[in-house]
Amino acid sequence: MREIVLPGTAISDQRISAENTYFDGAKTRSEVVGLYDSAHNEVIQLEGRWKPRPGDVVVGIVERVGRNGVYGISLTEAVDGLLIQDKYDNARFAVGDVIEAEIRDVEHKRLAVLERPKLLRAGSLMQIKAVRVPRLIGKANTMITQIIELTGCNIIVGRNGLVWMRGSNVAAATAAVLTVEREAHTSGLTERIKSMLEKINGNESRT
């Protein structure tokens, strides 16, 4: 069963270790506006800003190129990225390049220090609400894996809400991503996305 919860809503009379929750005495309460899944004891955040954490995989745009492999990376309006490459790393980027990277550290909540950059070539880029990303990825990657398999697209989802995709069926993948963003609070979404993409594939095969 799933239900909408607000900050402070009690989701259990016991202490449950789950993301987006906090303890109030013996009770567990939601700290965000979200969707509480009682079957899995998890709160999926639906509103609010993305809070960068070490280990998050992000998609960013190179906006400044400094000396000695130092780059300023655009992540969100509220969070900037900083990439300082090792002198032995031969990969170099230009302004406007789209990259995938991992957050190594977060400084002052607004600066994410990045590592392990990878250039994402010749694809399409779209922005969704960062708090919808867990729903787009899905439990054990089920949602995003399904979209990739049914569209044949290569898709990278950044925790900051930037989504990069490349393939012959980007239009269908984009439609699926936007549907997930719009209907993230509803149940049965995985099956609806599957049906939608199978219908698109069927229509294309008849043309």
3D architecture notes:
The protein has three domains: 2-45, RNA polymerase II/Efflux pump adaptor protein, barrel-sandwich hybrid domain (OB fold (Dihydrolipoamide Acetyltransferase, E2P)), CATH 2.40.50.100; 57-120, Nucleic acid-binding proteins (OB fold (Dihydrolipoamide Acetyltransferase, E2P)); 124-205, K Homology domain, type 1 (Ribosomal Protein S8, Chain: A, domain 1). By secondary structure, it is α+β, with helices and mostly antiparallel strands. The protein has four helices and 14 strands. The strands form four sheets. A five-stranded mixed beta barrel has the order 7-8-9-11-10. It has a three-stranded antiparallel sheet with strand order 1-5-6, with no helix packed on it. Strands 2-4-3 form a three-stranded antiparallel sheet, with no helix packed on it. The model has no long low-confidence stretch (mean pLDDT 90). It is flat and about 55 Å long.
Instruction: Name the assembly state.
Output: single chain
Q: Low-confidence spans: pLDDT under 50, at least 5 residues?
A: none
Query: Average pLDDT, to the nearest integer?
Result: 90
| CATH level-four homologous superfamily name of the largest domain | K Homology domain, type 1
Which secondary-structure class do the elements indicate?
alpha+beta
Q: How many strand segments? A: 14
Shape: flat
Estimated helix fraction: 10-25%
Task: Provide a count of the helices.
Answer: 4
At CATH level 2, the architecture of the largest domain is: 2-Layer Sandwich
User: What is the terminal-to-terminal distance?
Assistant: 41 Å
Computed CA radius of gyration, to the nearest angstrom: 19 Å
In CATH terms, what is the fold-level topology of the largest domain?
Answer: Ribosomal Protein S8, Chain: A, domain 1
What pattern of helices and strands is seen along the backbone? EEEEEEEEEEEEHHEEHH
> Biggest sheet: strands, sense, closure?
5 strands, mixed, barrel
